[in-house]
Design a protein that fits this description.
The chain is α+β, with helices and mostly antiparallel strands and 317 residues long. The chain is 18% helix and 23% strand. The strands form three sheets. Strands 2, 4, 6, 7, 8, 9 and 11 form a seven-stranded antiparallel beta sheet that branches. It has a four-stranded antiparallel beta sheet with strand order 1-13-5-10. The protein has a two-stranded antiparallel ribbon with strand order 3-12. It is globular.
Length: 317
């Protein structure tokens, strides 16, 4: 009787412990970065690489065989190693929310209008490409993506000084780091030429401005907020892999047309944003805030449950 009672208590204690482990929520933590570790105007002819004080966004237009559609991109990498434990396996991280912001450089104030919705790729197509459609709302949105890397590079090695490309920089699809959307498993796809290639890109988020209406002029020091869709399985996997590796890299793009051959003042047709190196008193570099949990992986539960079942079987024997 006594032995049977002791076995029952032990078995029940183990069951309760497992139940508590399964039921207890993981502890959440919020991380805030007031500026990125690396930021750079990701553009073929950027001679200052990671030291430029402004990052502009624009498309190349229709230039067959040359330059990406999303020609000028803005890359921001936040090194999370040291703030978040690395190497636990991507499945052990769960990101419950993530917010990215950028602020408009005052030199680009009141020349562009606000668009807070995605524009189909066909609205950016040149008539010579075929399949072009009219954009029914004013302006172009700001689109946030993850970042993919070529030639063995990663968020650490593609830093403030790495070469834009190891090939002819005027070619399409050669940039070492590129704006990327993700599939359901977090695998990246280069969206730099989605207009040419004829597919809809899937941004992580579209820039929003509190209190601003679509069509309004965008004023100086306007901050755009990007609430990343962490409910998307692929985006969740991408962010979790970033925490596991130790860095989250995000790329901002738009399809605003570029003024040719450049210029300023009333000729500006695209936005520019403050970087780490901006010198204006009110300059604010890109920011990132996210809340995450470290959770036991399914494999860990399997081992735990398996061990418990074996233990019970041994006790019954």
């Amino acid at each position: 009787m006594t032995h049977a009672y002791e076995r029952a208590v032990m078995n029940r204690s183990w069951t309760i412990a497992v139940a508590l482990c399964l039921a207890s929520p993981a502890l959440a933590d919020t991380i805030n970065y007031n500026n990125p570790t690396f930021d750079r105007w990701n553009y073929p002819f950027n001679g200052t690489v990671g030291t430029r004080d402004v990052a502009t966004l624009f498309s190349s237009g229709f230039v067959p065989g040359m330059f990406d559609d999303r020609d000028a991109q803005f890359l921001n990498t936040f090194v999370t190693a040291g703030d978040v434990a690395t190497g636990l396996g991507a499945s052990n991280y769960r990101i419950t929310s993530a917010r990215f912001t950028v602020t408009l450089d005052s030199r680009f104030a009141d020349v562009l209008v606000y668009d807070n919705t995605y524009d189909a790729f066909s609205t950016a197509r040149h008539p010579a490409q075929g399949g072009n459609t009219q954009d029914t709302d004013a302006g172009r949105p700001l689109e946030l993506y993850g970042t993919g890397f070529r030639n063995g590079l990663n968020p650490f090695s593609y830093n403030d000084s790495q070469a834009f490309a190891f090939d002819d920089i005027t070619l399409e699809g050669v940039r070492n780091a590129y704006a990327a959307d993700v599939d359901a498993n977090g695998q990246v796809r280069d969206v730099s030429n989605n207009v040419r290639d004829g597919f809809e890109a899937n941004p992580f988020a579209i820039g929003q401005v509190a209190g601003m209406n679509p069509g309004d002029l965008i004023g100086a020091d306007t901050t755009f907020t990007f609430d990343i869709d962490t409910s998307h399985a692929g985006i969740q996997a991408y962010l979790a892999a970033g925490l596991d590796f130790g860095a989250i890299s995000l790329s901002l793009t738009s399809l605003h047309p570029a003024t040719q051959p450049g210029g300023g003042g009333d000729e500006i047709t695209f936005p520019g944003f403050y970087t780490n190196e901006s010198f204006f008193p009110n300059a604010q570099a890109a920011t990132l805030e996210f809340t995450y949990e470290i959770v036991p992986s399914p494999a860990a539960f399997t081992v735990l449950l398996g061990g418990g079942v074996l233990g019970m079987r041994r006790r019954r024997a």
